[in-house]
Design brief:
By secondary structure, this protein is of the alpha/beta class. 34% of the residues lie in helices and 24% in strands.
Length: 629
């Protein structure tokens, strides 16, 4: 599978873009004309730069307002084309993109356009060049790839072909089955882009909100399956217009782009075993069976405070590492690991971020396969020296530079808790609060990182993303999306902070990076759990009494139920699936907290309650009258 990306997709000057594209693993690059025009080097030097990076110029673009022009404008368009052909030959590329005409001067007519393209094909052939025609979704006369193909077909010239762009087809909801009848040799290149579903002007939507395949809501996979069934095996190229991407690191966006194409190719290959594309081999997406553990980096002096908090939640110390200052606290199938080592990554993480939940372990069907897939999709492997007798857990870097470990029950990893740890005889047992498993983990990040990590998780694990939700903070908006599987054994909420004045933004600023901001534990009886927590000395996050007065009216709850909720500071929500109960701890440190939930058929995360939870957490984080930042 040959991969390419347009320079317009990235920030920086042409030199920065080419370096990022090559490092990410792409085979080729589309040179967007404006990127060349603002660059100081000659066409020959640009071509040499591209080839020095081991890349091929797949396309020069765009050539606008060509077909169907009346004289004398028509003659002028051919003069312009000859100038572009000069540039292309100097750069060393043979393909130019001609997008459908948007000029008010353009004349309609399939035959008129076909005649123009035939003549252009004659001129291109004399130079050994090719011309690809693309139907813009907002083209004046041609805005459908089916019409563009008819023009190419009637032009009947070997140097004239079609360029298909997923955005232009899918944004207009054009049937992708029409692609299957196009001869593969007449498809000169495939351009790919996804986008969130937004009801707005097509041109504005395209120029500002495109994103990588798999990051949006368009059926890009169906588009690519139709392309693959033509037998097409040429370049897959990304053309992404996105304001956010153009302000981000070109390296980070290039890595996302390469991951998106690799993942898309893998999906097509699994759907169509006879797919002609040479897709990299990798294991299938991993099935997550649950959270194996969450690990905290903390120092010896601060550890007693965290221990006291988790003991009031019903966790008890059950094991200690044989060679490291690492202890395990357990309740039900939940393991919380406290790492007070000064050496190794945990010690370094503490020095940078302070006390934090810096790592999590996921129980998967095959840990080695999960690692192999993650690496094939561009994840960064994590390894550190092992002490004698330790078992290496496959791991990659995650959000904020944290660690994601993979465990399974089919290898020696299933023995890690008995091989590496000694059981602790804890005589002073705290009472269990009835917590059973980790329900979900919430990771907070800068908003511009949100798409990156959504793609990361959904490409590696058998999971889907939920629609974007706006979480209203008194100081701004936090964008939130969840990654979850159908079984409910993997649930992660990803929260993108747009400014540091929100609680989420404060957490990022104060801990010097993104990471796990809260862990939610599941119980089968929230009221029994609340009673047990009270007996353990747990002090819940205080919720305003006004919330419960409104709750009664909003849901028509019985007064005694509302009284019980209010007495224990439990939040409530309901949807078509059922009911949801939430109980929170106050913040620990600079914004970390725990949550306890009970689900009765409910699949969401209580977004409607977020504003009340955030207001209560902010009051706890800073005394009344003091700003959060």
């Amino acid at each position: 599978m040959k991969t390419s990306i347009a320079t317009v997709s990235l920030s920086g000057d042409l030199r920065d873009k080419l370096a990022a594209i090559a490092k990410a693993g792409f085979d080729g690059v589309e040179i967007f004309e404006n990127d060349f025009l603002v660059f100081d080097e000659s066409p020959q030097q640009v071509g040499n730069m591209v080839r020095d990076h081991g890349l091929e110029i797949t396309l020069f673009q765009p050539f606008r307002d060509f077909e169907g022009m009346p004289e004398p404008l028509r003659s002028r368009t051919f003069d312009r084309a000859e100038r572009k052909f000069d540039l292309m030959q100097q750069m060393g590329t043979d393909l130019v993109l001609v997008c459908s005409n948007v000029s008010t001067a353009a004349l309609g007519g399939i035959d008129r356009a076909a005649a123009d393209f035939h003549e252009l094909g004659e001129r291109a052939a004399k130079r050994g060049l090719r011309v690809g025609y693309e139907a813009l979704a907002w083209g004046r006369h041609i805005n459908d790839h089916r019409d563009a193909w008819e023009i190419v077909r009637r032009a009947d010239h070997p140097n004239i072909g079609l360029i298909l762009d997923s955005f232009h087809t899918l944004s207009r909801k054009i049937d992708v089955n029409s692609i299957r009848s196009i001869p593969k040799e007449k498809i000169f290149i495939i351009q790919l882009a996804d986008a969130p579903l937004i009801d707005m002007d097509l041109l504005y939507w395209s120029r500002h909100f495109r994103n990588m395949p798999g990051e949006g809501d368009l059926p890009v996979l169906e588009f690519m399956k139709a392309v693959a069934e033509t037998g097409y095996d040429g370049y897959l190229s990304l053309e992404i217009f996105n304001d956010q991407f153009r302000g981000d690191s070109p390296s980070a966006i290039a890595v996302d782009g390469y991951r998106s194409l690799t993942y898309l190719g893998d999906q097509v290959k699994r759907a169509l075993p006879d797919c002609p594309m040479d897709v990299p081999e990798m294991p299938p997406r991993s099935t997550v069976e649950g959270f194996a553990f969450v690990e905290f980096a903390i120092d010896e002096a601060e550890a007693p405070q965290l221990v006291a908090l988790i003991e009031t939640l019903g966790f008890r110390k059950t094991a200690k590492h044989k060679t490291k200052n690492v202890t395990v606290f357990r309740q039900g199938d939940i393991k919380l690991v406290l790492n007070t080592e000064e050496r190794g990554f945990a010690g370094s993480s503490y020095l940078v971020h302070g006390a934090s939940a810096y790592a999590m372990g996921l129980m998967v069907d095959d840990a080695k396969a999960a690692l192999a897939r993650a690496l094939a999709l561009g994840a960064e492997r994590f390894q550190q020296p092992l002490d004698r007798g330790e078992i290496e857990m496959p791991a990659v870097r995650g959000v904020g530079g944290g660690i994601i470990y993979f465990l399974d029950n089919k290898s020696e990893l299933s023995d890690i808790w008995t091989v590496e740890f000694d059981l602790v005889d804890n005589a002073a047992l705290v009472a269990s609060a009835g917590l059973t498993v980790v329900d979900h983990v919430a990771q907070t990040m800068k908003y511009e990182e949100l798409l990156t990590w959504l793609l990361f998780y959904t490409s590696i694990f058998e999971a889907q993303k939920t629609p974007l939700v706006d979480i209203i903070d008194p100081s701004g908006v936090v964008r939130s999306q969840a990654v979850q599987n159908m079984e409910g054994t993997l649930r992660m909420t990803l929260n993108g902070a747009e400014n540091r004045n929100t609680l989420a933004g404060h957490f990022i600023a104060e801990t010097f990076g993104s990471g796990i901001q809260h862990i939610a534990f599941k119980t089968d009886d929230i009221f029994a759990t609340a009673e047990a927590l009270a007996e353990n000395g747990f002090i819940p996050l205080h919720i305003s009494p006004n919330y419960y007065d409104d709750l009664e009216a909003r849901f028509g709850l019985d007064l005694d139920v509302c009284d019980r909720l209010k007495r224990h500071n439990i939040l409530y929500d309901r949807d078509d699936g059922g009911e949801y109960f939430q109980l929170y701890s106050p913040t620990y440190g600079e914004g970390f907290f725990f949550e306890i939930v009970e689900r009765r058929g409910y699949r969401g995360y209580g977004a409607a309650n977020a504003i009340f939870r955030i207001a209560a957490l902010r009051k706890h984080l800073r005394p009344a009258g003091m700003p959060v930042v």
